[in-house]
Amino acid sequence: GENVEQHPSTLSVQEGDSAVIKCTYSDSASNYFPWYKQELGKRPQLIIDIRSNVGEKKDQRIAVTLNKTAKHFSLHITETQPEDSAVYFCAATSTGNQFYFGTGTSLTVIP
Amino acid sequence: DSGVTQTPKHLITATGQRVTLRCSPRSGDLSVYWYQQSLDQGLQFLIQYYNGEERAKGNILERFSAQQFPDLHSELNLSSLELGDSALYFCASSVVGVGTGELFFGEGSRLTVL
User: Fold this and answer.
1) What is the C-alpha separation between B34 and B45, in angstroms, rounded?
2) Which residues of chain B are modeled with pLDDT < 50?
3) pLDDT grade, residue A84 (50/70/90)?
4) Which one-letter DSSP state was computed for residue A12?
5) A42, A43, A54: which to substitute to probe chain B, counting the most B Cβ within 10 Å?
6) Has residue A4 got a pLDDT over 90?
7) What is the 3-state secondary structure (H, E, C) of B29-55?
8) Which residues in A lie closer than 8 A to residue B25 (C-beta atoms)?
9) Quick one: pLDDT at residue B96?
10) A43 DSSP assignment
11) Are strands B10-13 and B109-113 parallel, antiparallel or unpaired?
């Protein structure tokens, strides 16, 4: 089955700096790669996703890049703010199948 | 509000007991997933159902079982509970069809085993 690895497990940045979280996957059949943000005690919520026919997607301060050849995808957050502090999970899946989640990255934005 | 409803929100019980967690997916979503999240841990996949049928199984203990009913709601049964079963249990649903869709999570059921 699919195996998703996520790095780093913890990340601290100064407010205003950029944060990058990286994930790799193993199954070339995976074609959908979402990123979820989970605040303490709350449910994971989708913040951005990318499909295998696209190399990059941006939504304001958040962007995701996908390299299908290398089987890795990354989340980029620019101009970080304290409210960006949370745990971020990447995931990979293919149509109709289960979502394979990374182990999570705890991001702390220091004011 | 994700549209996924989970009950109960909180549950406190004793070791050896049995509990049932309930999930109603978003309207139109045929696929339901259950995840376990222990303190400061990731999302451990338990099981997936699609239109009433079991689709995929993760690291679900034999003491745990689940089903999806004809009206698409799902129940997760946890029996012979142990202290280590204390966790936040999430249900999620998605549209499964031509293209894979977003996974929508419920608010979770927090289980405390004393």
Assistant:
1) 6
2) 98
3) very high
4) E
5) A43
6) yes
7) CCEEEEEEECCCCCCEEEEEEECCEEE
8) none
9) 66
10) -
11) parallel
Best to test chain B binding among A6, A31, A40, A99 (most B CBs inside 10 Å): A99
Give the mean pLDDT of chain A. 94
A61, A47 contact by CB (below 8 A)? no
Q: Do A96 and B55 touch (CB under 8 A)?
A: yes
Question: Measured between CB atoms, which of B58, B100, B106 is closest to A93?
Answer: B100
Instruction: Kindly give, in sequence order, each residue whose CB lies less than 8 Å from that of residue A45, ignoring residues fewer than 6 positions away.
Output: A36, A37, A38, B2, B105
Environment class of B5 (CB within 10 Å of its CB; exposed 0-12, middle 13-18, buried 19+):
middle
Q: How far, CA to CA in Å, does A21 sit from each of A12, A58, A97?
A: 11, 15, 24
Distance of CA A27 to the CA centre of its chain: 17
